[in-house]
Amino acid sequence: MTTQSLHALDWAILAAYFVILLLIGVWASSKSKKGSGKFLAGNSLRWHHIGFSMWGTNVGPSMLIASASAGFTTGIVSGNYAWYAFVFIALLAFVFAPRYLGSRVSTLPEFMGLRFGQSTRNMLAWYTIVTILISWLALTLFAGGIIIRQVFGIPMWMSAFMLLAISAFFTMLGGLKAVAYTNVYQMVLLIVVSATLTFMGIYRLGGDSFTGGIAVLANPDIVPSEYWKLFQPNTDKDFPWLPILLGYPISGLWFWCTDQSMVQPVLAAKNLSEGQRGANFTGWLKILDVAIYIVPGIVCFALLKTGFFGNATIDPDNAYMTLVSSLFPVGMVGLVLAVLTAALISTIGSALNALSTVFTMDIYVKNIRPNATQAEIARTGQIVTIIGALVSIVITVAVDNIKGMNLFNVFQSVLSFIAPPMAAVFVMGVFWKRCTTLAANITLTFGTIFSIGTGILYLWVIPGAADHIHFMMLSFYIFVVLIAEMVIVSLCNKAATEEPKVTVLRERPKRDVIVSWTLLAIVMIALYVFFN
């Protein structure tokens, strides 16, 4: 797909999309409070804002492009990363959210400061900034750069700059409220267009019959039966079941419970019940990931097997865009580009807002200028947004040099080496009162060097390392080592940790919250039984 394939209607749709997005952003910003109120939207977010914002932050272009690629090559097994997540989203709703909201914190480093002291807060603030730059901004820009480069034929750095400029504009304009409100609009658009692509692909696969397309997908002579199994043997190179079972909880705990970009909408909830409902809504939305991200890749594979593309060969990383250019009529390309741009802006905007929040509240206000005015706080957040955007472009180039993995596993592997230190500190801090400040600080310094250093050796230095051990299993081993280190240091450290100042909301969950989470658990268990 090139710029030559874009017609007047495509450009009109793109223009209309950005106009509507701008109007929503301006409207939301006019309703957001000045100064630090931008960071948590004045604690006014309802469940649908929270759910769409969390899901929108999660489902960036890596989901659209990388998940379709994984579906093309391996089937729905990569859906574990979407469906297994409901366990950790529930952990956020019922274990972490009552502590976060009860302590009335703006950032997660602030929460850890209440638990372990100011030294831990400072370390965690810088750790969070680094992880946002790598895991959210650089990885998203990398995937987005691939898309924009394919469509417009411009260099990676220029496409990244374009995406960052748009996202930074909304972040500086209205803070989290503008990001959250535009996320609702963008995610509805994303669901509609991606669901339409899936439906049209199945319809065309069945010879203009949807039920016929389902029958083709169920034919093991066309689509191998292993494509419909969530658990693959341990001999599988990309998705063995044991590393996923043991390793994903480390990434899942960090990602859904302790990552500022993901958790910030819950911190901005109107109350605990709204936060729990919003987390539950995110869990329901995650079910869609397989249908609108992974299944299109399987459909593309089936169309290739049935001769729909003739003698053409298809790069798995291009499966999604191949389906778009082959199935959508002229004019719909603009709508797809709007959807992809929506996913990019959603993820990048949330990450930039989290980055500016952590630096401004945990470093600038706490350590540099405690008496800063609201205007100074807002201006600092805007400056940090711009600087963070520029730094992330540089990191994107390094990610582009990871070789030997499919696009989906490139993303997951990078995250699996960032997760263990943060996950270990939060688990021990919340679940073990005896854990000391010294143990937490050693993990955040030397543990981080150990974990990320191992990742650098695994991904860039040691050739063929992935053939000997899966990155998820390695992440699990690192987590176990860090937990053991924290236990030993805590037991040997005679100086007791600072008295925790964490306040826990003891509210009994509302009946609708319990019912909705129970139904979600039943549905998820049923899906795992059906697809095995």
Automatic annotation (TrEMBL):
Family matches, as InterPro entries: Na/Glc_symporter_sf, Na/solute_symporter
UniProtKB keywords: Membrane, Transmembrane, Transmembrane helix
Record membrane topology: Multi-pass membrane protein
Keyword Transmembrane helix carried by entry: yes
Pfam families in UniProt: SSF
Domain of life per record: Bacteria
Chief subcellular location: membrane
Transmembrane segments: 12-29, 81-102, 123-148, 154-176, 183-203, 239-257, 290-310, 330-356, 377-398, 410-431, 438-462, 468-492, 513-531
Gene Ontology CC: plasma membrane
GO molecular function terms listed in the Swiss-Prot or TrEMBL record: D-glucose:sodium symporter activity
Subcellular location field: Membrane
NCBIfam families associated with the record: sss
Family statement: Belongs to the sodium:solute symporter (SSF) (TC 2.A.21) family.
Protein name (Swiss-Prot/TrEMBL): Sodium/solute symporter
Top-level taxonomy: Bacteria, Pseudomonadati, Bacteroidota, Bacteroidia, Bacteroidales
